[in-house]
Amino acid sequence: MVNVAVMGHGVVGSGVAEILLTHAESISRKAKEEINIKYILDLRDFEGLSYSDKFTKDFRKIADDDEVLVVAEVMGGVHPAYDYVKECLLKGKSVVTSNKELVAAKGAELLKIAQDNNVNFLFEASVGGGIPVLRPMAQCMAANEMTEISGILNGTTNFILTKMVKENLSFDTALKMAQDLGYAERNPDADVLGHDACRKICILAALGFGKHVYPEQVKATGITEITLEDVDYADKLGYVIKLIGHCAKLDNDKITAAVYPALVPKSNMLSGVNDVYNAVVVKGDATDDVMFYGKGAGKLPTASAVVADIIDCVKHLKTRKYLFWEDGDQNYVEAQENVPTRLYVRLTDADNSVAPQIKAIFGDDVKLLNNTVANEVVFITNVEVEKDLLNKVEKLQNCKVAATLHAID
Amino acid sequence: MVNVAVMGHGVVGSGVAEILLTHAESISRKAKEEINIKYILDLRDFEGLSYSDKFTKDFRKIADDDEVLVVAEVMGGVHPAYDYVKECLLKGKSVVTSNKELVAAKGAELLKIAQDNNVNFLFEASVGGGIPVLRPMAQCMAANEMTEISGILNGTTNFILTKMVKENLSFDTALKMAQDLGYAERNPDADVLGHDACRKICILAALGFGKHVYPEQVKATGITEITLEDVDYADKLGYVIKLIGHCAKLDNDKITAAVYPALVPKSNMLSGVNDVYNAVVVKGDATDDVMFYGKGAGKLPTASAVVADIIDCVKHLKTRKYLFWEDGDQNYVEAQENVPTRLYVRLTDADNSVAPQIKAIFGDDVKLLNNTVANEVVFITNVEVEKDLLNKVEKLQNCKVAATLHAID
Predict the structure, then answer these.
(1) pLDDT over threshold 90, residue B85
(2) Would you tell me which of A93, A328, B4, B132 could form a disulfide with A140, CB atoms 3.0–4.6 Å apart?
(3) Among all residues of chain A, which has the CA nearest to that of B275?
């Protein structure tokens, strides 16, 4: 029998307890050990549960109990989660977590402590909820060098954009609907401003390319400025607007990593990822594109990923899984304005001189949309360094720039 | 240093050697051991390669060499692969394979021998080529009970159907194109008759539900009878025709498992899987639908999955991965005709009495297509047991049955 502790009894934590208790038999068969929840840490009272006797408000009980070999951290936030996880690892306990904020902020340090103490630190649930992503990347794709990762990493914003695209709802109306359905928080900033997706692309980049990427290094643009005009023009051009997290290796030993709303061609599999679903596309040098798709959040999907990590820790109490990356450095992520991209540009108050100007400045083969509203001009540029494209946009006269968005292939 | 042998130097085998040699440094870092190819078994001569000295035509050299701890079987076919793999496992060597025919025929037996000898038998490459599927199912989804698995499991037939749907090519023309591009064999039967997909759905069902499923138990229908008329009507009804491998748990402790061309709704992610790409959708009780997508075949994708399994074996020389299923039994797979389904039916030589007959027999809410060619009637039934639906189709008078195909949700 292996004793485990669950720190946090919110949405995910209660799901972890539920799965460990209801699936006890098949889980012990797979882990080859019975898994016993010895403690659940939460400051709140939970009475009347079949496992109410397991609750404690005192972290020291877990930290100081040598019988606890695996700890699941599902509290969220960096503090006190960081201190708790660190102490558990230092005391020789393996730790699993669903906490993307913690992994994005402290992943390299905690992986190093786990390595030094010959225990495991696993966090499959931190990206894509119940979708297997990190372990397949680290294990199944181990014979590949990764070159690029992109994905729809936030279910709330994908739900909102899907409602805007499919039902022509405004951003505000779609956000309200997401809040009413419990998909969005009352304060939706972390989702709609792209911060949540930013943490996830940091973790994917770190695992894929081997070096920590800090959220502060990654420019995140949210979806609050997306209008139904842009949605409609994108559709006419053969695209769908999605919030994309993207990272790739560059030629100069740096990487690019960013989160932005982008026009995604309808032929790209990511364009078909709707509602609260997430998807991650990983490009390996041997496999080419591989995609992982499913529900990126929710109580049971996320909890099932945490439990799978617990099972893996129990099976590997004496061996370490290969999951590691180095510390980051200040110059590792290229400034977004220096990265080549393709832009969608929407101009208003434009007169007849604008289309010829565009061709003169951006080239004859720029993709101009024909059937726009009167006095509006919409086009998609060729690929150039972003700041050069933005400089060119500024040169356009007799018009206003209403929107510039990335367009991917 | 760990010595390995590669049995077979065809498309996949040469890819395995290439990846192990070109990615040696990153692979040894991940495996925490240098991996040395000691032997390559092939009856043919390969001169002038940088590793020509490693070739042998004698299996005994590998079997009798106690220094060889891991063997990759990439010869294909059941014999002699089965005898070779069995002997290696009995001698305490871990074995990895890309051979779906072998795993579908002998998986349970070989997994048992591996267990008894405390070694590993891994076969990620046997389903989906380079796409991670089996390990994520067994590990990341370990906290789930699987209820249903469906997928596009054969790239050749998916390429042919994509050409029929997108470019209006006939089956024969599209097959010829697939052959010219090297996607289809000169004798394409294993692909176009559904046998290859059948082996893969057997492996997926065995892993997902815990019991061996033999290809002989699974009805496989190929795509040779699909016409452009069906493709066109499917499109008008909002569907795309795909070759689907499907298995699911039934209420009576049996399962259903089958391969058939099916109408897939355009809103279903599988409808967007085109060309030689494959995808597998796994439904778990906690995660709901999870999809794995990528190139299902090809030298480097498949070889990279074999190498990942080699790395995993090297890291787990003394522990067993959880990957196991029981022997099958004769009554485990329900006869396809007893399974509920939905049918697409195309009738020719039909007069005005047919539409009213359909509504009388199948119900008023049957989905009748309006704009058919003269004297043709097309409809999609509600869900009923297949043989009942087919009996009802036989009752229709004053028409001929040109096609009946499954329609999925």
Answers:
(1) yes
(2) B132
(3) A267
